[in-house]
Amino acid sequence: MADGLPSGLLEACIVIGASSDKLNKLSQSLSQLNGSPLPLLDPEVLQVHRPLFCLKQNVTEPAVETLSPTQQWCSPIQKNNDKPTFNTVNPKEEATENASTLKELDLAALPQLCFPGGLQVTKKQKDEQFHYLVFTDVLGNQSHGVVLQFYRATQEGKQHQNGHQTSYKPPQLYTPYAVCVISKHPYYSALKDCLSSLLRELKICQMTEMEERAKEFSAKLSVVPVPPPGQLHVMFIMQPLMIVLPSREDQHHPVVDLDLHLPFLCFKSKEVLQIIACILTEQRMVFFSSDWAKLTLIAECFMLYIWPLRWQHPLVPILSQHMLDFVMAPTAFIMGCHISHYEEVAEENDDLILINIDEGTVSCSSILDFDIPDVPYAAAQCFKSRRKGLRLHYDLNLLNQSICGDLNELRNQRRCWQQRLNKEIQNISLELLFNMFRDVSDYLNYEHRVFNTDEFLKTRDPEDQSFYKKVLETPIFHSFLKERLNRKMDMFAQLELSNLTEEQKYRNAVDSSRRPTIQEMRRSSSKNGHRSSLFNQDDKQVSPTSTPEMPLNTTAWPVKIFQLPFFPRPLNHLNILHYIEDLILKLNKAISAVSPDDSSLLARYFYLRGLINMQNSKRLDALSDFQNLYKTDIGVFPRELVKTLVHSLQKEERVQVEERCELRRLICQVKSKEKREQMECDNHVKKFQLPKAPMQLEEFVKCIQESGIVRDVATIQRLFEALNAGGQKQIVPELFRMFYKFWKETEAEAQDVLLPAEVLERLDSNECVYKLSRSVKTSYGVGKIAMTQKRIFLLTTGSPGYVDITKFRDIEEVKISAPVRILRNSSLKIKNSLRDEIFEANLKSECELWNLMVKEMWAGRMMADNNKDPQYVQQALTNVLLMDAVVGCLQTQKSVCAASKLAYHEKLRQEVPVIIPRDTAWTLKHKINPSQNMMNPQSVDVLFYSPGQLTFPDSDVDVNPKLWCGLGCGKVVVFDAASWSLKQNCIHLGDSRLNCMMGLDQDQVWIGSEDSVIYIINTRSMLCHKQLTEHRGELTDFTLEKLSPESRSSRAQVYSCSADGTVIVWDVPSLKVKRQFHLSCDRLQSIQIHNGALWCGARDCIMMLKPNGDQLWKIHLPDKMKATANFFNRVTLFPERQQIWTSFTDFAELCIWDFNDPVKPPKRLKLPNCKGVTCMIKVKKQVWIGCGGGSGLSKVVGKILVLDSESLEVEKELEAHEDSVQVLFSVEDRYVLSGSAKLEGRIAIWRVD
User: Fold this and answer.
1) What is the pLDDT of residue 502?
2) pLDDT for 220-234, tens place per residue?
3) Measured by CB atoms within 10 angstroms of the end CB, which terminus of the chain is less buried, N or C?
4) What processes in GO biological process is this protein linked to (predicted)?
5) How many other C-beta atoms lie within 10 A of the C-beta of residue 1157?
């Protein structure tokens, strides 16, 4: 279900059959037929019943409108952006007021689709039959139909001929009728059950009563709401059946209400894979069967198999005999015909894929050989292996079970079995797609929305190339790429994240060079030289354990079923009103019975009640229910539906909205997001293309980033200078093409490097060989010099072996010796600090380049060790690879000189002495870069550490501690604090600065933003599933108050404050506002709780308050600070010393106040080598102060002063960052984390004494 569509199950109920005039004519002509077959009659629309959500009409009016066959039928709601021709109605009608735009629907073809084989009157009673329809409009919006065909005896009567009564008595005839139920939602099984219930009544009612029965049936379905995504299903009674509407699994997934194993009963695995391949390559496909019902259901199963990829072309599963010309369409399509038309369709059309469901075959209509594309081999083998484990026959499941006598209990058992099987099949099909496209994201540039098609294809196996070449050109794959670039968190994306190893996460974050690691080489060598594939292969066998485990997890989350009230009789308008009141009352009881901890279920009830209120024209109540989704589960918030609802508000309702601040805020958010989406309408995907015109610096930066070579802007700027050896200040296309070609050839060569097993054993698993020289003569023998990110070593020739040259951290000196007259070549000399002998290599023309590269890696290693930051090595390695490419493409005498412009770390080593103060070197433990996946460094504005867990009931929960980093662009990145590897890249929380974080138990992280919203992150899903929007100003701080000393956070309350002086107290389980108050101050920026009192810090004062907001006392800003335009910026409490420590924005001084006598003048403490305090925290008996400073040759701008709280002496002066220290955070009093502003944008981890 798409947002903005009708909330009810029914879109229309249409009765189709032969007109009475035609039946009379047929009856009169029976005597003339003389035993010949009865002629086919033309079916016509007899009745159209559609829901009217009009609840302000007269109570005597019906709840379902019945139109005559000549009237135009209209669907109740259409998206605002739809632009077909509209059939307008009276603007005063409530249907228009209810955010409904009536869309014209042509019913001319419907009779033929309901009787695709023709309407045949028979002389014998026939059994009823069902089949299914799919309707698609020009915008791709789909409706779904279920058709019941049944037979009724014609009414007997006296026959007349020429006005006279005859004695001839005609035989009994049986006339077929069809009831077609159309819905926006593919509830095939549920709607079939509904029609089965209706059939009981149609069989026993009189002909004159049939219209009333159909009308009442339509009225019932019109008030059935469709469940929201998630764990809540809806059940209703249509005697004698209990009918369940299953919900979608999540917001992005379609409804699954059919038997997904049907294709497995009709086709073997080979044919199933062929059909999937034909769909993905967008062939012209026609399904055939003798059973009309199979056509739609089988086609719909395949549509679900390829999810999240979506078919973009015509889908017409059923063609009547008058529609066969449709298969001559030149575009891709999926259509269905009766098996009797197989030969006709095959003979008259070329290049059609013919799929015979009855025989389970797939063929082509072309006279010439046409190769049906094959699914990639490894993925296909895994799929076949998984399919063998499916238990497809329900009867086998009943062999060891007792038989239940209750019909609905039997149906429930069958439904539960089918849902489990459906889940298994969905997981297997998702795994198939994942194994085909699992590394697509490696070739995407998210900033510029570029997919590097050529490079992706180069990495495919040769036998799979033809499949991928066809798929990559299709709109279906293009749409899939759009969703990846939009970072859509669907099941494919979740599977992709869950299958990343720590090594892959690290390499994705820091290394874009695509070199195989030593571990990957070991795997490759263990497979007898065969290239590593997705799975462990042994000839043609695939081990299931080598494939991802997550897709096969069929454990279903607990499902709650909400039963609707019994339908009243008769279903007139007054009873409908009572029914809706009963339904809302039942929802109210369900909401009150749900535990506040079960916010997910609560959100579904709010969603459901919002839909009912919307139907009932209670728009403000509906908006209020949807507003509650922000606090319970924003993942199911129906944005388009709410947008439609907002636009439908009447004038008096808008006045009421202005009086309700929460609704006013909701409408503002909806409108601002709509405006932002209009501004950000660029949703295209580009293929990477080499430039065709000279590029200036800005264009060059963009092109390099699109190519995936380098992200960092500063590095690309240095590359631009290196390639601009002639000083033209532009890069011509031919030069870029040569550079790009050399880079990619070097990457490809690295993939083919095969090291002997004895060499692999000497190297670390995560090392990669980045550079390999020609065979040269060295002081250690003849061989090739190899460079990894850690060392250089010699691969000896003859008997291949390993000779260690040096690790980069052990280098003492690197130089080029003067050429000897006889050799006329310089040689490279490397002195290892751990050895006496000097390594010397006669590298000939490569000597200067190797000298440059080794020095850059040496400098990067030194900087990494001194700063405890491994990123320096990775940056140096990137520079080395770029140097190699520059020299390779320039091929001039000055190429090495040009490449030297990329030796950034070596230049720093020579210009700035690497002098790390002793205290800094000892205290600094590690540095990490949270902006490593971004084009530019970002300011680290807020940090939070969540401890790990030794035990947890759920095995799928990550028990490692985590470091949460809020960046200046409204993004959050999460590190695994055990390995400092990037765990979650970029959780987007708007575009504003993030100011504060707080954790609640192990389940939630609260984040306060400059945009006045509190974002709540679910630590399991790593998604923002709730938002609190009651604040009107910038969020600045949180504090947690446990209501009992040993209580969990679920029995606690949170205080949040905003810059405008508002303090809100939240009940944690329900997220309801317990109370709020306003403080009169200049920018409220901190809040703490101690001994039941609140301590609030503002720019102009510090206040001690009672929990209700009453002021106990107040400290004003000292006059001296007022005179110099300084303000309080940090407040730290020392309860054990009865002290309050305060700092100031641009003043190197602290004030220490007395708890018990705040009027008493404070102690003043001057801070040495400090230009102003930026942050301050208490750690044990120390105070850590972040400030600006730096002197001499040091590039350090951000300092950390460590003060003893008793002696007030500076114990340490730490040179922390190259930009100001933005934030400090204490980790269990064992470590302190510091984050810097955007010039550096790094996080440092410090030891605490």
Assistant:
1) 63
2) 998 899 999 988 999
3) C
4) enteric nervous system development; regulation of Rab protein signal transduction
5) 10
